[in-house]
């Protein structure tokens, strides 16, 4: 009986039974893992893209500061022009009062 129970063909039969029972579950686990890997890769790409966008925003602060100073300078120049125009329109009227008839 001991010899028959340990015969190589019986061992191969038991191995075949084990593989036949566990293979569908292993295939399902493999499929699940591939799906999770795809989802993880998508999430990683999204996070890397967001980090890149934030870094670019941080790097662009120099440009925004430059734009801000240029806008302030342009507003100051416009105020100076308006003040100069106001003085030039007031000055000729004061020199040439309307003639009385």
From TrEMBL:
Stored InterPro entries: BORCS8 (IPR019320)
Localization in the cell: Lysosome membrane
Keyword Membrane set for record: yes
Entry similarity comment: Belongs to the BORCS8 family.
Keyword Nucleotidyltransferase applies: no
Top-level division of the source organism's lineage: Eukaryota
Gene Ontology annotations for the cellular component aspect, listed alphabetically: BORC complex; lysosomal membrane
Pfam families to which the protein is assigned, alphabetical: BORCS8 (PF10167)
Name of the coding gene: Borcs8
Protein name: BORC8 protein
Keywords: Lysosome, Membrane
Principal location: membrane
